[in-house]
Amino acid sequence: MTATQTWNTTELVAKDKAHHLHPVSNLKALRANGPLVMAHGEGVYLWDTDGKKYIDGFAGLWNVNVGHGRHELAVAAAEQIDDVAFVPTFFGLASPPAIELAARLASMFPGDLNHIQFTSGGAESNETALKIARYYWWLKGQPEKIKVISRRMGYHGIAMGALAATGIPTYHEGFGPGVPGYVHVSAPYKYRNGEGLTDAEFVDKLIAELEELIAKEGARTIAAFIGEPVQGAGGVVVPVDGYWQAVSDVLKKHNILLIADEVICGFGRTGSMFGAEEYNFQPDIASFAKGVTSGYIPLGGVAVTDEIFDTMSEPDRMFMHGFTYSGHPVACAVALKNIDIIEREDLPTNARVSGDHLRAELHRLLDGHKNVGEIRGKGQMTIVELVSNRDTKEKLDPATNPSGTITAATRKQGVIVRPTNDGVGIAPPLIITNDEATALAEGVAAGIVDVLGG
Ligand SMILES: Cc1ncc(COP(=O)(O)O)c(C=O)c1O
To answer: Does residue 232 have its Cβ closer than 6 Å to ligand 1?
Structure first.
């Protein structure tokens, strides 16, 4: 470990308990126990303030795609701060890295997603995508096209619009009333929603439900459908073959825009550069964040098609949407170097290879386990879904917080993973080697056995 400082863990934990209001955390438990404080990272590893080493089996929050400690990203940030730290992109201004990054991303996104607006993160990106969808129809003289279809188990962020699209009930509790105009359909979650069906039959069932909802709401009132190519936080829902093509055909038929939420999937995680490429569909808008900078600095954005951009830029009026930090020069400079690394090291391919290896190792270690319902994933997005009974698929008692208890147990094994839906979510940096993936699988399996028995 080459950390540059030593730390007083007790003091830090006491300050955290007193002053740090954590997101997406059990505040009562944190107030009692305090956080695990990470002070250093290199590759797929993190070290806590006491020098204990962990595998970062969740790549931060599915975002540290190139792994920790990439000095060239530090240099890119420092050089840009020296040149100029901040130039807005409002009111006709821009900086060289914002322009270069927009052009670079336009060349990377599939099809004619050639126009980029930047944000600071995923929720802002989805808010932007949803607002652009409404704005597009408004400019097209169809101001009644405002509703949004999303999927149950989908996660799109916690700002009010993105939250309204999010189909995970716990994120809504206590924050009502929600934004009107959002409707949901079932996830392509074959384990529970498509039992006993072939993939083709399952797609037919989901499409019938989508068609029914569109008929009920009226296509003339629906602006967009938003979905993650592979659903992440809701439980790593991997769509069956043919799903995205069928959804995209229905939306086209009804003149509904398709927004791909590439916040997790983008920049290599599914095994292709973008999830839409992995599943061979063409969105009208793609939102991104996370992997675009590998989390070294906050950045997100949306890519829109020529048709949408032409429509938006035709009238002689202001587009009244954006964030102070849209196109932050330092973030864009880091993103450019980060994309260099992703391409140079062909990280999408490694995500595919190491992800398949990880799941093969999880199968080797856990296939016989009485509580393992399903091990599934794509690229470096994996879940071990847990049940109390494998035949009936009955869930473990949520009151015992099984996922949380297991992810805490894996920390004792030196592995950081995350409670996800009814299981353990695993999403390491895309640079992970097969040997490291084996160690990660062993840590996860040991945590599961520790809590649930062999
Ligand atoms: C698919 C997806 N969309 C959007 C978001 C929201 O991103 P952020 O937390 O950067 O606002 C997330 C965050 O995990 C996500 O997984």
So the answer is: yes
